[in-house]
Amino acid sequence: MSAPASSMFTPAARAVAARLGLKPGRPNLEEFADSLQALAAADRNLVAVTSDSRGSGKLAPFGRALPAQLVEVGIAEQNLVGITAGLAACGKKAFGVSPACFLTARALEQIKNDLCYSNVPGVVVGISAGVSYGALGSTHHSLHDLAALRAIPNLTVIAPADNFETREAIRYAARATRPVYVRFGKAALFDLHGPTAAFEAGRAITLRGGRDVALLATGETVVHALLAAAHLEDRGVAARVVSLHTVKPLDRPAVLTAGRECRALLTVEEHSVNGGLGEAVASTLLQAGLHPAFRIVGFPDEDTVTGSQADLFRHYGISMEGLAETARQLLGD
Amino acid sequence: MTDHELSLQATILRRRLLRLIHHAGAGHTGGGLSCLDILNVLYHRVLRVSPATAADPGRDRYVQSKGHCVEALYTVLADCGFFPDAALDTVGEYQSPFVGHPTRKTPGVEMNTGALGHGLPISLGMAMAAKLDSAPYRVFTLLGDGELAEGSNWEAAMAASHYRLDNLAAVLDHNSLQITGPTREVMSNEPLGDKWRAFGWEVRTVDGHDYAQLTGALAAPAAGKPLFVIANTVKGKGVSFMENVGSWHHRVPSDGELAQALAELSATEQSLREAAG
Asked: Tell me: the pLDDT tens digits for B73-129?
């Protein structure tokens, strides 16, 4: 089990994590790879499709253990998704695995048409999503994928927050009867859920109650929202934290409940502020006549600065300290 | 059906296709007429699929990559009994399941297509599924000339021979025209046979309107490699004033043009019947 990247959390944030009893997790990427291999070992019908990405997808052990169930297509993402759709149309449980940046931009038309318009139950897995590749630059970032894929019918879009949500998302995808997109990163974080947690696609998980401000987060920003809530509690602010692991379909009741019960709402995502979770939540609230104090925290519409994933999170305020500060500003404190 | 019977049937199907496009007020006339004989052979002689076996996991698959020529596919599927002929009068109508490109709403259609360069990768996945399941079915796709400029075809061309998918066949409706003009002027795809052979495929070149040649090329797979059939066709085949005229790519015949085209095709049918005695 790898320790959470030290640069991702300040000493103060690590202290709060310790106080909350959060256990170090391992990279969601590793959890995904082991989960997929376990499912494949029990189901010969499950096939992984990779685009020279078995190493970056941690699927080399899968390939060695179950060589007949891993299809390599070379660096050819369009072909990867087309093949995944063809396999799925013929009854295979196909998982196309590729870095989210390439998968959801270069092969967007294949996702839209071959998987989603044909509505075959193939799965596309965007690895090293968001700004996981950090200083490699914007070619390797996927800050557009949630926006692009939210607009495509039949597709379920999931960004798990921790190992539990990743494992459950992959299990869900394996039994889904419609196409699914799952995206996650490769940094070791913390486990956020207790042993009694339950995962259901499309159903948010409330990690912490509170009625001053709600932090509605998705993917690997949820841990920062949770730490921020604890940090805010020390300053007399009761913050709710909701993991919206399923960005589409969005859990409207969870969003509306937060909108009705909390004075302020903050959304958090490792994605552009355009078209992602924040705008999905905003439209849900507005169309229900709710207009709490509201802020979208994500990546602004500008060239992303250079730096590691941790640098970028800190720079754009996706950290315990940054989110707590934004929440206080929003509450007018 | 004999070659002669298929040829007679084709004159009837071409008339049906033209009436369909005229009625719908939209469609891809030239390409539909050029690929119709290929579809006629596939569905009547090669593909092991019928309305009764349309959901059978072991059926042969056909994916129409050049989805814009859907009217030809609809015409042949109706002829094979996948749905009543009268349904063709609803193509493109409000809330009709018959869209202007193939969709799975239509009985017999395997995958939704229409954007070019998608059918071959999908077919590759289907052919892989057959291999993984040790199932004997074959997978066929139909490509267009202009479509070959899409790079995804060449990704799939590499992968199909890498995996020695001898259950996969791609047929090129080689009418040499695309919407802007002759393919060799828009973006040359020649030398076609050399390209596909270099990518590891078996290449067979036939007259795309000759039933014996088409049957010979399509009936048997190649050994240990995917099969690429270059079907030399005539865009607008069967109607004198449409043949090899680029503007008929998606032009809809007027009432007078329809009447003239139907008369020509009826005359062709009549002469075929007389030739057979």
From this structure: 999 999 999 999 999 999 999 999 999 999 999 999 999 999 999 999 999 999 999
Q: How many domains does chain B have?
A: 1
**CA separation, residue A331 to residues A238, B53, B66, B274 (Å):** 11, 64, 57, 90
> Chain A within 8 Å of B114 (Cβ-Cβ)?
yes
Q: pLDDT tens, B111-125?
A: 999 999 999 999 999
pTM above 0.95, yes or no: yes
Alpha helices in chain A (DSSP H): 11-19, 28-42, 60-65, 77-89, 100-103, 108-110, 145-150, 163-175, 222-233, 252-261, 277-287, 309-315, 320-331
CA angle A194-A196-A201, nearest 5°? 95
Per-residue pLDDT 10s for chain A (333 aa) are 456 666 899 999 999 999 999 999 999 999 999 999 999 999 999 999 999 999 999 999 999 999 999 999 999 999 999 999 999 999 999 999 999 999 999 999 999 999 999 999 999 999 999 999 999 999 999 999 999 999 999 999 999 999 999 999 999 999 999 999 999 999 999 999 988 999 999 999 999 999 999 999 999 999 999 999 999 999 999 999 999 999 999 999 999 999 999 999 999 999 999 999 999 999 999 999 999 999 999 999 999 999 999 999 999 999 999 999 999 999 997
CATH topology of domain A8-22+197-331: Rossmann fold (3.40.50)
Map out the domains of chain A as residue ranges: 8-22+197-331, 28-188
Q: Which CATH number fits domain A28-188: 3.40.50.970, 3.40.50.1980, 3.10.120.10, 2.60.40.10?
A: 3.40.50.970
For residue A79, give the nearest of B63, B103, B152 by CB distance: B152
B-chain residues within 8 Å CB-CB of A76? 155, 158-159
**CA gap A324, B34 in Å, rounded:** 66
Distance CA A161, CA A208 (A): 15
Tell me the C-alpha distance between B8 and A274, whole Å. 59
Please judge whether B115 and A91 are an interchain contact, meaning their C-beta atoms are less than 8 angstroms apart.
Answer: no
Q: Cβ(B145)–Cβ(B172) under 8 Å? A: yes
Which residues from A are below 8 Å from B113, CB to CB? Answer: 113
- The token pair at A204 is 């948010």
Instruction: Kindly report the nearest CA distance between residue A83 and chain B, in angstroms.
Output: 4
**If you measure CA to CA, which chain B residue comes closest to A114?**
B112
Chain A CB contacts of B130 below 8 Å: 90
Query: What is the torsional sign of CA A70, A73, A76, A78?
Result: negative
CA distance B61 to B46: 11
Q: What CATH number corresponds to the domain at position B181?
A: 3.40.50.970
Residues in B closer than 8 angstroms to A73, CB to CB, are 155, 159
Return the biggest CA–CA distance within chain B. Answer: 54
B202: part of which helix (H) or strand (E)?
strand B202-207
Structural domain of B99? 3-275
